[in-house]
Amino acid sequence: MTHRRTKLSIAIVLIVLLLLAGAIYLRKVAPPEAARLLPESDGMVYFNLRPLRAATHFDQHPVEHSPEYQHFIDATGIQFERDLDEAAFALHRMANPRGPNGSLAFSEVFIGHFDGRKLTNYLAGIGAAQEMYAGHTIYNIPSEGRTVRVVLLGYDIVAVSNTPSSEQIHSMIDRYRTAALPFSGSSLLSRYYSKLPLLSVAWGIGQIGQPLASGGAHVLGLKLPLPVDSTFLASLTWIGKIHVRVTEIAPSDGAAADTTESLQTILVLLKSMANTGEAESYDADTRAMINSITVERHRNEAVLTATIPTALLQRQLSHPQELKALPVPNGGKEP
Known about the structure:
Blueprint: H1 2-29, H2 33-36, E1 43-48, H3 49-56, H4 67-76, H5 80-83, E2 84-93, E3 104-112, H6 116-126, E4 129-133, E5 136-143, E6 146-154, E7 157-161, H7 167-176, H8 187-192, E8 200-207, H9 210-215, E9 217-219, E10 222-224, E11 231-239, E12 241-249, H10 253-275, H11 284-292, E13 294-298, E14 301-308, H12 310-317
Antiparallel strand pairs: 1-2, 1-8, 2-3, 3-7, 4-5, 5-6, 6-7, 8-11, 9-10, 11-12, 12-14, 13-14
Helix pairs in contact: 10-11
């Protein structure tokens, strides 16, 4: 009897360990939480700033602060280059490009180190109205003819949306309640996330849209044939160096072949400029990046890959553009 109980106990422990290992594996291969919280959209972009910060130390470089951003720092104690760990953005194409949102509206999720009390006081001070939804307070902030809606989902998660309706911010609150499910998220994420390289620290998914496709994209004077219904996947993977991968999923093998041929032609010209007559215009790191670029086709997919030297990335991030915070009326002063 004792022997039978021991075997049963061992079996139970093994089952529990297997379930835990499975849960951990699912969480590792599942989309990051910030991306899973985004609502349905036409495109999305995600950044994991932790490894980029550790590799480039961009948080240690001085940043020129606008008056609005400095006011935000003083009021909340939040400094994005230091405190922001993850950011995810959903792009919503607007039916009326002449409206207050222009051609695109955005929904955003930020994960980092926030002082909830200070941030709540700040949002309450600049908000024109508040809305309660599913136990969360949504702060409605007027900005350039639009309403920016902001909600604190948790002590380290903030959601923002400037879409014309509150549907998107409500969707993010609803998704937060099911965030523990590892494969929850929008249909765009469910369909394409598995095609991204593992351990990607930044990536984007979406279609190029009608304006770019109809006008055409030009590189070095050559036009790229970009079908409206092509979907693009772009990713940055950190494995000692930054590896870039951009995939066009074209509507047909022929469309992918046209893109591949055009990119290969442009690449020949670019490498020639970097390594011959125009070489003095490029430093060693830039030439190394250009020489690492390859373009291949796999059926209906055109795939561009490249490697960015860490030193080149560090130089780019050491001169960041002026940062802006949440919209603040009255020149950055409390109303």
